Amino acid sequence: MTLRSLPIYIFLFLSCNRPSSTIDNHSPLVHSEEQLDSIFESFESIAYEQPKQYVSDPDSFFNSLTVQANSPYQREMYAYGLLFMGYGLLQHGDNFESVKYYEKAYNYIKANQVPTENINTEIITPLANLYIQINDIQKAIALLQKALSETTDNNETVRLSNNLANAYLYNAELDSAKTILLQAIKRPSNTLSSALLYNTLASVYDKEQNWKESTYYNNLALHNFEKSPLEGDTLLWYTAALGLKGSLEKDNSYVNRAIAIAEEHFPNAQNRFKAKLTLIKGDILKEQHHLDAALIAYDNTLSYFKSEDRAYVLDYTYTQALIGKAHLYTSLQQLDSALYYYEWAVENDFRTQQLIVSSRDQLSNNIFNKQTIQNIIDLVQSKPDLIHKKEIVQQLLWCIELSKARLLINEINRSESWSSSSDKTRIGMQTIRNLYHKIDISVDTIEKRKLSQRLKKTMIEFELSERHFEATQFEPQKARFLKHLNRPNSDFYAYFVHNDSSVTIIHKSGQEFSFKRNPASVPLLNLLSFKTTYFGDTPNNYNQNPKEYREKAQYLTSELLPGIRSAQRNVFISLDAQLYGFPFDALYDDDFLVKKHNFAYLNSFLLFDFLSNKTIEESKISVFYRSEYPSPLPNLQFVNTEVEHIYDNFSARKIGPDEQNDSTIRQQFALPNIIHIAAHTILDTTAPPIIYLNQAISTNQLRFYEMKTPLVFLSACNTGYGKPLPSEGTESIQRVFLSKNVPSVISTFWFANDQTMLDLTTSFYQQLDQTADPICALGEAKRTYLQSAGSVEQNPWYWANINYTGIGNEIGLKKSSNLSYYIWGMAILILLGLQYPFILWLYKTVKYKDKKTYNKSK
Q1: C-alpha closest to that of 741 among 580, 614, 574, 619
Q2: DSSP state of 124
Q3: For residue 232, which of 97, 557, 758, 777 sits 20 to 30 Å off, Cα-Cα?
Q4: Which helix (H) or strand (E) holds 507?
């Protein structure tokens, strides 16, 4: 990873045409047009010529400009000032801030139609390469593909091809990288451009572990460099090739030469580039078992970032140097130091990964990070006395939980920033949601393809306009994390599944922490077999032999839930890998565990930090439902009864198929109401999960809804099931609601039994009305069900599929209004009250008439 970053780093310095500007004035109190011209010329001039004035605190410099550009000339100066800030920050090694200001420049130019000489060269290319630096590869690929499709200049085509090949290289699309490089090599270009292409191709072959081809193209690159004049940026390209040669031959003489050139020609700049070279040097020394020298090299790598002790630098080179030091201290048997640097690396990696927007790159980094966690656990286990130290187990728990749900946490924070975003971002969200909607309902393959292409272009513009890097504030603190685990009446179990299928379990009960690692394969294989046998398509396996079920469930309890007999009422479980979708409350310890405990599932205990605890004193319920479906889907017989019960007892709005238009659905999700959905869900191995209301709503659509609901109840089948994601759980409907900052979600693991679902749903809302606690309410609903269930209905297949995921929040229910009943009651009472006078009047009238008739007859 380090080696591959070198070739692309050098392309970040090719992208700005630098117009000269020299005026440096202070802003007067009253501004004429000429004075405004001078102010913006000064801003542009400092941004280009004096980066030292802002690189340590770019936001302060930017915010000191308090006037607005009026004329086209002022807007051009302002745009180039932003662009030069991005370039200056890049030269001084601040990738994070550089991305932010390049994005500002891009958005300003697009919004104000500022003319540029070549936006691809000036902004798109360096911005895409910065995305590669921070591992947001999908975003880089999209930008570079767009730029390449729009250029007609041969030299620019060669340069963009090289940059795109590097993006493919980072994305492990090696065939695509080789194809585009070999095509570019055939184009006429100068010697230096050829050298760049050769060296990138050498990196691709290096990634394939084809050392022969890699060495061949690296030598070609060096040959072309050495017969060309080298100065400025071309020296960086040359040193990158030297670094690659040193790595290929495990010879630090080449790396030292590259470092010396960089130090001589860039003494006060290019620190990140020099850090990458010293990281290569450290890796070579470590591999050659020169441990003390390797330690010095890693320290040099860290020193280029000029950070204080235990600081965080949003850069993967920094993280890798910390991991390198941790490995060295492990080899030197200095375990306290090793754990210190491992923990620091995991914390730094977490913060750096949150810069990444694309889900694919997030998931790829999750896999890389998992190996670090396994190294930490192996280190702790290597010294048996360590696993009994409370502070060590706490440290391990902290690192494990930081390794999970990173994409989900990123989605939560992005979603929250969208709620207060600009009008442009909101329009972008609406456009994306509409495109997903059209894709979901379309049955035409060609139309779907065209819509997907439009969506891809729209997503590029949206991700640039949302200003993700300006809203990024991820600072999880270990002390706060541990404080969240002090909830009353609660125990906590965290799981980590290793590559060999062994399972690490950390249990917190009261103030005690315990560590356990189950042997490879045994409990996990038993669990998977147990899940398949008893929670598949039929309840029959349990009914045939309940005793056998209880024995197997008792074994799994002892393996997966150590100390459960003394655990508190509420049990929070942080899941991992194959443990998702397993009903822990259906395990057994003299009786079903649900009889004593309420279970709440989480992707990571870090969600206590990131999900909002939305407390609602009196919540209404918005009920979306559909009971009748076209073949082959069966009708849902229980839905109408379920809806009527909710409507009759609580303040609720029934939203049937006739009302389920886009506007109504969005409006209800944006209210602080409970959302109850009773409908079919559709799962497909190739497409995102779908809620099938009047029209299909995919999880893609849901991601772009505004949501303020405190609880979502998914009264449908398989809403907690989906495609497994590395360290993220499953790509399920339930998970999407969590990503929209919904703190409580009730979903199902497998097909729901109609009558049982109706009974549990009815009981859940009754219990929620009494307790205002959704975790407790679901547990009590299950216990109430089991109290009256017959021996057949005791089967967990019927009741264990429904589960709670979330952090636990207080939700009161608003009762159904009885005003209409009062009105009718009063009317009846009034009628009854008037009945006697009316009868008396009628009696007197009739009697009087009879008397008159009698008198006349006489």
Answers
A1: 614
A2: I
A3: 97
A4: strand 503-509
Residue-by-residue DSSP string for 16-42:
----------PPPSS--HHHHHHHHHH
Least Cα distance to 123 among 368, 464, 405 occurs for 464
Cα–Cα distance measured from residue 394 to residue 493, given in angstroms and rounded to the nearest whole number: 12
Residue holding tokens 């180039």? Answer: 80
Using pLDDT thresholds of 50, 70 and 90, give the confidence band for residue 832.
low
Are 258 and 246 spatial neighbours (Cβ–Cβ below 8 Å)? yes
Contact 741, 415 (CB under 8 A): yes
Q: For residue 820, what are the contacts with CB-CB under 8 A and spacing of at least 6? A: none
d(CA 349, CA 370): 11
Q: Is the pLDDT of residue 82 over 70?
A: yes
Per-residue pLDDT tens over the stretch 638-685: 899 999 999 999 999 999 999 998 889 989 999 999 999 999 888 776
CA dihedral of residues 138, 141, 146, 152 (deg, nearest 10):
180
Residue corresponding to tokens 């340590």: 56
The per-residue b/e assignment along 156-192, b for 16 or more CB within 10 angstroms, e otherwise, is: bbbbbbbbbbbbbbbbebbebbbebbeebbeeebeeb
Could you write out the three-class secondary structure of 322-348? HHHHHHHHHHCCCHHHHHHHHHHHHHH
Q: How far apart are the C-alpha atoms of 323 and 346, rounded to whole Å? A: 9
C-alpha–C-alpha distance, residues 62 and 470, integer Å:
13
> What's the mean per-residue pLDDT of the chain?
87
d(CA 123, CA 103): 8
Q: How far apart are CA 162 and CA 200, in angstroms?
A: 7
Burial, 86: exposed, middle or buried (Cβ in 10 Å; 0-12, 13-18, 19+)? buried
DSSP class of residue 613 equals: -
pLDDT in tens, 557-590: 999 999 999 999 999 999 999 999 999 999 999 9
C-alpha pair distances (Å), 187 with each of 121, 184, 194, 228: 19, 5, 9, 19
Q: What is the spatial distance between Cα 854 and Cα 534, in angstroms, rounded to a whole number?
A: 90
Q: What is the pLDDT of residue 852?
A: 47
Cβ neighbour number for residue 249 with a 10 Å cutoff = 15
- Helix ranges restricted to H, 383-444: 390-402, 406-418, 423-441
Rounded CA gap, 242 and 246, in Å? 6
Task: Give per-residue pLDDT as tens, 615-624.
Answer: 998 999 999 9
Helices (H) and strands (E) in the chain, counts: 37, 18
CA–CA distance, 645 with 766 (Å, rounded to integer) = 10
Q: Tokens 């030297």 map to which residue?
A: 242
Q: φ and ψ at 763, to 5 degrees?
A: -65, -35
Buried-exposed string 640-676: b where 16+ CB fall within 10 A, e elsewhere: eebbebbeebbbbebbbeeebeeeebeebbebebbbb
In the prediction, which pLDDT does 853 show? 45
Mean pLDDT of 271-294: 95
Distance CA 282, CA 325 (A): 9
- Angle CA 56–62–67, to nearest 5: 160
